[in-house]
Amino acid sequence: MGHEKYPDTQEGCVDFMIPKPAQKAVKDAYQFAITLQCINAAEDGSKSWDHGIFDCMDNIPLCLAIMFCNGWGLCISYRNMQYMTGDSCEVAFVNGMVAGSVCLGPCHYAVVRGNFRKKYGLKGSPCQDCMCGCCLGPCVLCSDTNQLMVSEGIAVPFLNGLNASGAGGTKVSPAK
């Protein structure tokens, strides 16, 4: 079994400490921040969200789980990132933690949510994505999860509170 060798340089140290996908996530978040995308209010997308930011109570079991069980909420959050980015849940977790540790968490989330919106043609703007990442965590987590349940046909175990117009199916792993 071969082991990767890292050079005794600054780049080697960074590569040893931070996985390549997390380095890319931080670079993307940094680029979002320095280009001031957080003030870009130009809307794109043509489709309305099935469950908006303030429609938390559309799925009461999910809303309660996110509000009162932080561990379950974090699991749901990083599983959502897995669906949104196509990366594994573990990679999504590391990317989010590394970006957050250098104060770029909201920008990282804005990049991920922006790509998610583009994938499904959902209405929104980089400014809205950034504000969601900064200020509306639990509400946005409910909205994203409900939208993923509709768009991907996934079901969160024990929290399938959506009616027939919501989630269908019982997939719990990414379709990708």
Automatic annotation (TrEMBL):
Pfam families to which the protein is assigned, alphabetical:
PLAC8
What InterPro entries would the database entry show? PLAC_motif_containing
Q: Organism's domain of life?
A: Eukaryota
The protein's matches in NCBIfam families, at most eight in alphabetical order, are given as: A_thal_Cys_rich (TIGR01571)
Q: Known PANTHER family for this protein?
A: DUF614 FAMILY PROTEIN-RELATED
Q: What name does this protein carry?
A: PLAC8 family protein
Organism of this sequence:
Chlamydomonas reinhardtii
